[in-house]
Amino acid sequence: MTVDSNTGPASPSMVRRPGRRLLIIAGIALVALAVGAGTAYFRGSHDATRDGSAILGLVLPDAQGRQQALAQWRGKVLVVNFWATWCAPCREEMPEFVAAQARDGAKGVQFVGIAVDDPAKVRSFIEEIGLNYPALIGGYGAIELSKTLGNDLAALPFTIVLDRQGRVAHTQLGPLKAATLDSLLGKLLNAA
């Protein structure tokens, strides 16, 4: 304990512990950094300029069993969404995708859903929501496929957006909010 000649013994709360303060500040900084990185990841801020050839190289069956190559949409702004009928956030964001496809399809936007699901359930869901873009069947192996494309947490929904040149312009783990989607599509369509 220290003694101040003017006031007498210092109380424990008055004793300075610079090492402890530094540890607390460093801990707070690390937590803030982790929260910021996590928030950026879930908001899709980890955009990339990666080559999208792995996505354009995919060939998967549609809900009717016909093989569909994603390369057929090369030259368009391509929004590829990994989803499932049992995924509540997926189901919530899909009406926004339907609206954007209706609004921007003629301008050069193409949405494609890759279902991590059973084909019969996908066909039923397509009718239920009036899906106006292709739903390809990736089955339960599509989660592994999405991991190779940047879905490190193997969670749904997961969306990849390619620009007209076939480069990955945006990735999103978790729901893609309408305002973010609209802004992104506007930028990519105007860049062409």
Task: Explain how this protein is built.
With 192 residues, this protein is an alpha/beta fold. 41% of the residues lie in helices and 20% in strands. It has two domains: 17-46; 48-191, Glutaredoxin (3-Layer(aba) Sandwich), CATH 3.40.30.10. It contains six helices and nine strands; from the N terminus they run ββααβββαβαβαββα. It has a five-stranded mixed sheet with strand order 7-6-5-8-9, with helices on both faces. A two-stranded antiparallel sheet has the order 1-2. It has a two-stranded antiparallel sheet with strand order 3-4. The model is unreliable at 2-15 and 29-49 (pLDDT under 50).
Short structural description:
The chain is of the alpha/beta class and 192 residues long. The protein is 41% helix and 20% strand. It has a five-stranded mixed sheet, with helices on both faces.
Structural topology:
Blueprint: E1 3-4, E2 8-9, H1 18-43, H2 53-56, E3 59-61, E4 67-69, E5 77-83, H3 88-104, E6 109-115, H4 119-129, E7 135-137, H5 142-148, E8 158-162, E9 168-173, H6 178-191
Parallel strand pairs: 5-6, 6-7
Antiparallel strand pairs: 1-2, 3-4, 5-8, 8-9
Shape: globular
Percent in helix: 40-55%
Q: Which segments are poorly predicted (pLDDT under 50) over 5 or more consecutive residues?
A: 2-15, 29-49
By oligomeric state, this entry counts as: single chain
Average the pLDDT over all residues and give the rounded result.
82
Number of domains: 2
Instruction: Give me the strand/helix succession.
Output: EEHHEEEHEHEHEEH
Q: Describe the biggest sheet?
A: 5 strands, mixed
Q: Give the class-level CATH name of the largest domain.
A: Alpha Beta
Distance between the termini: 71 Å
* Largest beta sheet: strand ordering: 7-6-5-8-9
Gyration radius over CA: 24 Å
Query: Which CATH-level-2 architecture of the largest domain?
Result: 3-Layer(aba) Sandwich
Which superfamily, in CATH terms, is the homologous superfamily of the largest domain?
Answer: Glutaredoxin
Total beta strand runs: 9
State the secondary-structure class: alpha/beta
Q: Count every helix, treating DSSP H or I runs of 4 or more residues as helices.
A: 6
What share of residues are in beta strands? 15-25%
